[in-house]
Design a protein that fits this description.
By secondary structure, the protein is of the alpha/beta class. It has helices at about 20-35, 40-50, 85-100, 115-125, 135-140, 140-150, 165-180, 195-220, 235-240, 265-270, 310-315, 325-340, 345-360, 380-390, and strands at about 5-10, 10, 60, 70-75, 105-110, 130-135, 155-160, 185, 225-230, 250-260, 270-275, 280-285, 320-325, 365-375. Helix 2 (about 40-50) packs across helix 3 (about 85-100), helix 3 packs parallel to helix 4 (about 115-125) and helix 4 packs parallel to helix 6 (about 140-150). The termini are far apart.
Length: about 400
């Protein structure tokens, strides 16, 4: 019996092997207890400020918007210690791991940003760390692999299936089934079985808390539009969190449109409801219900499903979900580099590309747009260079 409602409408739940149910119920119990504990919250606040580097700034892009009436701000999660928003919730889950008296951590990673964040915090808190990563992603994100190893983590190549994030997730779940008694699985996004989606939402809401205060101080009002990329959906749910009940703020999630309608990672646009990764959500699947291989130039968005809260927000139409293809995301990557001197992650470039479309469509419209720059793009330089050459 869960303490919290494990569903978002008809999405969510705990669809895992029976052996993992006690571990999930233990995690929920500790999350519910310590999220109200002042000492725990103060420890987390201290690490977010003095280790991770919060609060992150809100940067006005003056060059991209020249000749328009748009004010475009970037929430600079790329400036965090790990180079991405992932560290926000890793700190929370790692502290819960210590409270549960577990000594080992496993995680999965696609772009490597979640893996680096997990390895950093495990080193800091003296937790043994093992990271599962698809061999295809190890090749395209090798810089982050080296960082994880220097930080003391063991990187486990996954050579089965798609050899990407999907395969890494499957292998991490399988491993956890054998070691849950002394191991916590730090899932990197707002997906997976209950209570992960609720827990990641709570820990990532620090982004939205800051944005709301910062934009009111700068513009004396809430933004007109908030945009974030969506793979599993953690950075998006983080920045959407405090605006979900503000109907005058338009929220837009940007999925990876990949190459075309058949080679993408846009589970909300092209997927159907099904069961995967311990949850009921939208999944890219074939006529027979088998999960199809996803595709995105961005390793962090290359996932065949999405967090159940996003599936619910799409179903209830509170958030508009759109797609951006590989080419447009690379174009946005190059524009931000050349116009503003910022190298964005390819994940974030999808969100930026849609913001640029909005601005070009109606340049005279007076509007304030915030894009969540979820990570920095030094890890993606090789991928972008190869794409441009080909």
């Amino acid at each position: 019996m869960t303490i919290l409602n494990p569903y978002f409408g008809k999405f969510g739940g705990m669809y895992v092997p029976q052996i993992l149910i006690p571990a999930l119920l233990q995690l929920e119990k500790y999350f519910v207890k310590y999220i109200k504990d002042e000492n725990f919250l103060q420890k987390m606040k201290d690490l977010l400020k003095n280790y991770a580097g919060r609060p992150t700034p809100l940067t006005l892009c003056k060059n991209i918007t020249i000749g328009t009436n748009t004010k475009l701000y970037l929430k600079r999660e790329d400036l965090l210690h790990s180079g991405a928003h992932k560290i926000n919730q890793v700190i929370g889950q790692a502290l819960l791991t210590k409270k549960m008296k577990k000594t080992n951590v496993i995680a999965e990673t696609g772009a490597g940003q979640h893996g680096v964040s997990t390895a950093m915090v495990c080193a800091l808190l003296d937790l043994k760390c093992k990271i599962y990563m698809g061999s295809k992603d190890i090749y395209r994100q090798n810089t982050n692999v080296m960082k994880m190893k220097f930080l003391g983590a063991k990187v486990v190549p996954v050579n089965t299936g798609t050899k990407t994030l999907k395969s890494a997730c499957n292998e991490a779940i399988r491993s956890w089934s054998y070691n849950y008694h002394n191991t916590h699985y730090i899932i990197g996004t707002s997906a997976g079985p209950h209570p992960y989606p609720i827990m990641v939402h709570k820990f990532q809401s620090v982004i939205s808390n800051e944005v709301k205060k910062q934009i009111i101080k700068l513009e004396k009002k809430l933004p007109d539009v908030v945009i974030a990329c969506v793979g599993g959906g953690s950075n998006a749910i983080g920045i959407f969190s405090k605006f979900l009940n503000k109907d005058n703020v338009k929220l837009i999630g940007v999925e990876a449109g990949g190459k075309n309608k058949t080679k993408n990672s846009a589970s909300l646009k092209y997927g159907k409801v099904g069961i995967y990764f311990g949850m009921k959500s939208n999944i890219i699947q074939n006529f027979y219900g088998q999960i199809k291989n996803s595709h995105s130039i961005s390793a962090g968005l290359d996932f065949p499903s999405v967090g159940p809260e996003h599936a619910w927000l799409n179903y209830s139409k509170r958030v508009k979900y759109v797609t951006i293809n590989d080419k447009d995301s690379v174009d946005a990557f190059k524009i931000l580099c050349k116009k503003e001197g910022i190298i964005p992650a390819l994940e974030s470039s999808h969100a930026l590309a849609y913001a640029i479309k909005i601005i070009k469509k109606n340049p005279i419209k007076k509007q304030t747009i915030i894009v969540n720059l979820s990570g920095r793009g030094d890890k993606d330089i090789s991928s972008v260079s190869s794409f441009v050459k080909n």
